[in-house]
């Protein structure tokens, strides 16, 4: 009975917060986002699985993100599957779904003239390009000689030179992001996956993704 009473009080409090502030908290939610600065008539949409998310709902139907603790890119088919299984899905515009300030700054539309490449931890990253994707391209190309397994890619990203670039710190979150980014890159045709060898092959390397590691 005590547990049921607590649940009732919690529901009542959440209802009051939503009514007064139009805010709702979701432990897990799928957000579909697109670039509001895109010149395309149909901007490409990306899907994200977000944890501990606070959303604000406006009378005109717009949904805005107030806070996201963690966000992970997922392919569309997985987003639809999770939605069918009961995970809430909302469409958001001009959303900030990045975990770090650097990623957020690089993803914004430039208001002034900026350099084409930005130096970050000894690597030259092209402006407004996915950071992790660019580092994976460099890792496969430079340390894997054009091919590497997922564990090898993680080693190349986290181990110090000459065994790797040493750009990132190995964490469970990084492992999750590398896995989802590899799926995204495979879908885009940047890399190809061989099921027999479990290796990823670099088949497309844009010139704008060239990185230079100091001391390499």
Describe the overall structure.
The protein is built from six helices and nine strands; from the N terminus they run αβββαβαββαβααββ. The chain starts with a helix and ends in a 14-residue tail after the last strand. The protein is about 35% helix and about 30% strand. The strands form three sheets. A four-stranded mixed β-sheet has the order 3-2-1-4. Residues about 110-115 and about 205-215 have low confidence and may be disordered. The chain folds into two domains: about 10-95, no CATH class; about 115-210, Winged helix-like DNA-binding domain superfamily/Winged helix DNA-binding domain (Arc Repressor Mutant, subunit A, Orthogonal Bundle), CATH 1.10.10. The chain is α+β, with helices and mostly antiparallel strands and about 220 residues long. The protein is elongated.
Give the CATH H-level superfamily of the largest domain. Winged helix-like DNA-binding domain superfamily/Winged helix DNA-binding domain
Helical percentage = 25-40%
Counted beta strands: 9
What is the gyration radius calculated from CA atoms?
20 Å
Give the helix tally: 6
Termini Cα gap: 65 Å
CATH architecture designation of the largest domain: Orthogonal Bundle
Task: Give the class from helix and strand content and strand pairing.
Answer: alpha+beta
Summarize the structure.
By secondary structure, the protein is an alpha+beta fold. It is 35% helix and 28% strand.
Which labels suit this protein?
35% helix, 216 residues, alpha+beta
SSE inventory with pairings:
Blueprint: H1 2-21, E1 23-34, E2 45-57, E3 63-74, H2 76-84, E4 89-93, H3 101-107, E5 117-120, E6 123-126, H4 131-143, E7 147-149, H5 150-158, H6 172-188, E8 191-194, E9 199-202
Parallel strand pairs: 1-4
Antiparallel strand pairs: 1-2, 2-3, 5-6, 7-9, 8-9
């Amino acid at each position: 009975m005590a547990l049921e009473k607590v649940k009732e009080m919690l529901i009542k409090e959440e209802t009051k917060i939503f009514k007064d502030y139009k805010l709702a908290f979701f432990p897990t939610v799928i957000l579909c986002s697109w670039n509001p600065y895109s010149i395309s008539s149909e901007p490409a949409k990306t899907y994200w699985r977000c944890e501990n998310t606070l959303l604000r709902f406006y009378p005109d139907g717009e949904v805005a993100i107030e806070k996201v603790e963690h966000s992970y890119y997922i392919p569309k088919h997985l987003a639809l599957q999770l939605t069918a299984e009961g995970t809430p899905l909302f469409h958001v515009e001009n959303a900030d779904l990045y975990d770090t300030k650097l990623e957020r700054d690089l993803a914004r539309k430039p208001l002034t003239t900026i350099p084409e490449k930005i130096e970050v931890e000894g690597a030259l990253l092209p402006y407004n390009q996915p950071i992790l994707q660019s580092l994976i391209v460099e890792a496969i190309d430079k340390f894997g000689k054009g091919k590497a397994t997922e564990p090898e890619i993680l080693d190349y990203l986290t181990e110090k030179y000459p065994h790797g670039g040493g750009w990132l710190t190995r964490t469970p979150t990084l492992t999750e992001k590398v896995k989802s980014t590899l799926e995204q890159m495979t879908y885009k045709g940047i890399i190809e996956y061989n099921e027999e060898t479990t290796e990823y092959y670099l088949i497309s390397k844009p010139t704008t993704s060239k990185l230079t590691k100091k001391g390499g």
